[in-house]
Specification:
alpha/beta, seven-stranded mixed beta sheet, 5 helices, 23% strand, globular, binds guanosine-5'-triphosphate, binds magnesium ion
């Protein structure tokens, strides 16, 4: 697998041409989006990580190539970080919404949720909006190394129960830890499956 940083964009209009299937990573600030991208591409430090929330402020495109298949991974600013101020928060939300609305090549969006916390209202409303906008997404529980197996299971079950109240079918769910390299194979396999479907759907019909 080879990876290349393509560019940082301040809005969807500046993003690279939509020539490849695209996988975006969204979630609250500090949930671990940039860390997860680095784990997937096995490149510590390519996506900038910080223990201070609000690190990623732009739309960052990375191109991944494996054999003849290429796709984009997209690192996005997080939501819900109060300390950046109301104006900046609004700016990030607008940036995210515009990107999601206009970027037609998004094949799947990975919504990251910190496995340590109880269901948070902004995460649940993000899930709701994605569903309503019919944007295909999966849920990734991050930082699983910070909890014991029982607590982890309890937290995830609680989330699933909450979602089951409004959703008939739950989206795919992944459990990840960048400390343990957990969830990497599962997410990459999922991307490979989506890529295969994408290439079939974009190939001219004979
Ligand atoms: P913003 O760019 O600010 O929105 O944050 P982000 O979602 O990109 O989070 P980032 O990847 O910068 O990680 C935030 C902090 O969480 C860093 O200190 C990471 O080292 C830590 N972190 C991320 N994933 C994991 C994980 O799986 N396990 C542990 N223990 N720490 C993690
Ligand atoms: Mg980040």
């Amino acid at each position: 697998m080879t990876t290349e940083f393509i560019k940082s964009s301040a809005n969807w209009k500046e993003c690279p041409e939509s020539t490849l299937p695209e996988y975006a990573f969204v979630g609250r600030s500090n949930v671990g989006k940039s860390s997860l991208i680095n784990m997937l591409i096995q490149h510590k430090g390519l996506a900038k990580v910080s223990s201070t929330p609000g690190k990623t402020q732009l739309i960052n495109h990375y191109r991944v190539r494996e054999g003849a298949v290429e796709w984009f991974l997209v690192d996005l600013p997080g939501y819900g970080f109060a300390r950046v101020g109301k104006d900046k928060q609004r700016e990030f939300t607008e940036l995210l919404n515009d990107y999601l609305l206009h970027r037609s090549s998004i094949v799947n969006l990975f919504l990251l949720i910190d496995s340590r916390h109880e269901p948070q209202s902004n995460d649940l409303s993000a899930i709701q909006s994605l569903g309503e906008a019919a944007i295909p997404f999966s849920i990734v529980f991050t930082k699983t190394d910070k909890l014991g197996t029982t607590r982890l299971r309890e937290n995830i079950d609680r989330y699933k129960n909450d979602l089951n109240k409004t959703w008939e079918n739950l989206p795919p769910v992944f459990l990840t830890s960048v400390e343990r390299n957990d969830g990497r194979d599962e997410i990459l396999n999922y991307i490979a499956t989506c890529n295969a479907m994408y290439s079939r759907s974009t190939q001219p019909q004979k």
